[in-house]
Design a protein that fits this description.
With 106 residues, the protein is mainly β. It has strands spanning 2-7, 10-15, 19-23, 32-35, 38-43, 48-51, 59-70, 74-80, 85-91, 94-105. A four-stranded antiparallel β-sheet has the order 2-1-5-6, with no helix packed on it. Strand 8 (74-80) and strand 9 (85-91) form a beta hairpin.
Length: 106
């Protein structure tokens, strides 16, 4: 069984036991996170796919928050030729790591 859900402008595929990185929010590690913006749910046993318009009613994903993590360092270089004008900055996005415990599709 898997589900496609939307979180923070991104779409993720969730399966039971899979670890994912989603956008950061104020939540303590070890607590459960309930995701309710489910776009599609597939039951692998019966090969049934429920597609929401826009979301599947009654479906949710329960996940455990493992820790906060940081993504890769992105280096941004700004440069103009012959102007002696350069700038180097960086960015590192913060995520939370979750582990999917169960997928509920009513």
């Amino acid at each position: 069984m898997y589900a496609i859900f939307k979180d923070g402008g991104h779409q993720y595929k969730a399966e039971v036991g899979r670890e994912l990185y989603v956008d950061v929010r104020e939540i303590e590690p070890g607590t459960d996170l309930v995701l309710e913006n489910i776009l599609a749910v597939s039951d692998s046993e019966n090969e049934i796919l429920k597609i929401g318009q826009p979301y599947v009613e009654g479906a949710k994903i329960v996940a455990e928050v493992l820790c906060k993590a940081k993504g890769p360092k992105l280096v941004i270089r700004w440069f103009r030729r012959r102007k002696n004008s350069k700038k180097k900055t960086g960015h590192r996005q913060t995520y939370i790591k979750i582990k999917v415990k169960e997928i509920i599709a009513d």
